[in-house]
Amino acid sequence: MVTMTVQIPNAQVGWFEQMVRNLGWSFSKSDTHSLDETKTQKANSDDLIITPALRRKINHARKEYAEGQTVSCKTPQEMQHFFDNL
Description:
Distance between the termini: 28 Å
Shape: flat
Number of helices: 3
Strand content: under 5%
Largest sheet: none
């Protein structure tokens, strides 16, 4: 498992949380305004394992993207509209 720290503007936290839930990922939220470098974990090459099954999923997603079978949102409002209509 890889741990990632993301800073998101307060106005976009809602749609980001919904996206994370829809993907089935787990998350925790803190209400800090600055990152403490001692608490930040940096991913290294040992943390990034691409299995053959994951490689197939990545290739399938790339094919769908190339064929225009994906949803593209250019603004936060478009993304919010997309999530509201799921």
